[in-house]
Specification:
heterodimer; A: Sodium/glucose cotransporter; B: mainly alpha
């Protein structure tokens, strides 16, 4: 057994054990399972939200984009900062509504605010359809990282299966609390790995990051400004994409739902203030990607740049450490994704849609069963059809961001109507899908999802204005 | 809208202006600052400053919205 293998296995088993242990003393009700009893302080909320932001995409995707596309990757740095700034105003209001009406999920909010169970079912279904490809991506990414970093000692499918069992175990027993505690381990490992590699490799090969950037600017003059190495990711694309993803980030059902776990609106507000600092490690990931472009050009798969560079530069045990960090970095977001997707199905599709009288205990039991079902689906896709969901992934952000007008207008404008949100949401979602699937993204240089969002907001406001029917609770939630 | 919220919203506009609207004007490689190409330096600078801007927003809300604690944020 080699050192890398040992480190990877020990880390993921230990992490899962911490996750399982986290919920042992808590009586599992739906409230404790999905929103941690609304008792998380600044530190746990920070860890939980950070756990959702740093996914396998951060490891592989951000460095891969830096490697193969150049400057357009900077949008990742920007959108997080915009998301936290917006969340400073939006999340405390979301939290207050959640506390007042005992909400657990994002569709709960729509159901309460617009007094429409069917709207809740629609929001839940769009949420689940957006989450599953994202979940599969975590599993596929994990398999990838573990296989490469253990030098083939653990096959990708074995790693995925192991992660499946362990993640299900701690989600099942501890709910959101398990994810938050595993996040502690994940953050320490991930930040350590990224800092060592991101600061290390430019120094090792060029003496300093400044010299690396100068060498890059000479070798590939266009790489460090928009549109980088791409043909169509212009400044306008970066601007609209940063706006779309910045406003859309907290519209992901799992991120939105995490806000309910905080113990007060004040906690979330404080959290929003410190979150942007957490973007800085992404800069280090970029540096690794840029260094890889100079040191090992011509990789077939840019997403492998980070791992290949570590493999070339550091001893095998360190590779194991990076693999372990990468594996836990996939498990935490996977656990939160599956937890919320399950709750959406059990609470907002089954209970809201078909069986309003179902008890909380039934909903919790069904949610736990759904954890296995949804993870099972993601597992099958990861094993047999790893590329089948790529199209859905493209539309994931475009889709969930269409919730934005319904959420924000619902919180701050009494005049918004159920019909307005229904029409706006549907128009936005269909428009985004049509533009993306007919290859019109970017559309006139802009991110197609952003175009759809603007149309959605306009339709929501216009229909609300023109519908005279006062069929609603007139902004009771706001 | 309470005064504190107005100030906070005004402050929160700064990251959006600097990190979105300003991009066409800073889309250049040089001059290098702190070893970073100018575009990347600009982005990192404003990300680093944003928590301080939000701290000011937090402070403004607490100072000016005192009598509005029960109201909407």
């Amino acid at each position: 057994m080699n050192a890398a293998l040992l480190i990877i296995l020990a880390t993921i088993v230990f992490s899962a054990a911490v996750g399982i242990f986290a919920g042992r003393k808590v009586k599992m009700t739906l409230e404790n399972w999905t929103v941690g009893g609304r008792r998380f302080g600044v530190v746990l909320i920070w860890l939980l939200m950070a756990g959702e932001i740093y996914t396998t995409f951060t490891f592989l995707g951000a460095s891969g984009w830096a490697y193969s596309r150049g400057a357009p990757t900077f949008y990742i740095l920007i959108y997080g900062t915009l998301a936290y700034t917006a969340s400073f105003f939006i999340l405390p209001a979301v939290w207050k509504a959640g506390k007042r009406f005992g909400l657990h999920t994002q569709p709960d909010f729509f159901i309460k605010r617009y007094e429409s169970r069917s709207l809740g079912v629609i929001v839940a279904l769009i949420g689940v359809v957006s989450i599953i490809p994202y979940l599969q991506l975590q599993l596929t990414g994990l398999g990838f990282i573990v296989e490469v970093s253990s030098n083939g000692a653990i096959r990708s499918n074995v790693a995925i299966l192991l992660a499946f069992v362990l993640t299900c175990a701690f989600v099942f027993t501890s709910g959101i609390r398990g994810s938050a505690w595993v996040s502690v381990i994940k953050d320490v490992l991930m930040i350590a790995a990224v800092t060592i590699v991101g600061i290390g490799v430019p120094r090792i090969y060029f003496g300093s990051h400044g010299k690396m950037f100068r060498a890059l600017a000479e070798a590939h003059p266009g790489h460090l400004v928009f549109p980088g190495a791409t043909a169509n990711l212009s400044v306008l694309w970066v601007m609209t994409t940063a706006l779309l993803t910045g406003l859309g980030f907290y519209m992901w059902p799992h991120v939105f739902g995490s806000a309910f776990s905080a113990k007060s609106a004040e906690t979330i507000k404080k959290n929003a203030v410190i979150m942007p600092f957490y973007q800085i490690p992404i800069l280090l990931v970029f540096m690794a990607g840029f260094t890889a472009l100079l040191v090992m050009p011509g990789l077939k798969n840019g997403d492998l740049a980070f791992l290949e560079l570590v493999n070339k530069t550091y001893p095998p045990w360190f590779m194991g450490f990076v693999g372990a960090a990468g594996a836990v970095t996939a498990m935490v977001p996977a656990s939160v994704l599956v937890l919320f997707a399950s709750t959406l199905l059990a609470k907002n599709v089954y209970q809201s849609g078909f069986s309003p009288r179902a008890s909380e205990a039934t909903v919790l039991r069904l949610s736990r069963i759904m954890v296995l079902v949804i993870m099972g689906f993601a597992l099958l896709f990861a094993f047999y059809l790893p590329n089948a969901l790529v199209n859905l992934l493209l539309i994931g952000y475009d889709g969930v961001t269409q919730f934005f007008p319904g959420v924000v207008l619902g919180l701050f404008w009494k005049g918004v109507r159920r019909s307005g949100v229904l029409w706006g949401l549907t128009t936005g979602f269909v428009l985004a899908a049509v533009l993306v699937f007919t290859k019109h993204d970017p559309f006139l240089g802009m991110n197609a999802g952003f175009v759809a969002l603007v149309v959605n907001a306009a339709v929501t406001v216009a229909v609300s204005r023109f519908s005279g029917a006062k069929d609603e609770n007139n902004g009771q939630v706001a | 809208m309470p005064k504190g919220t107005k100030i906070a919203l005004g402050l929160a506009l700064i990251p959006f202006l600097m990190l979105v609207l300003a991009l066409p004007f800073v889309n250049r490689v040089g001059p290098f600052v702190l070893g970073l190409p100018f575009l990347l330096f600009w982005i990192v600078l404003w990300i680093f400053l944003t928590p301080f801007i939000l701290m000011a927003a937090y402070w403004a809300e607490n100072k000016f919205n005192k009598n509005d604690k029960q109201g909407k944020s």
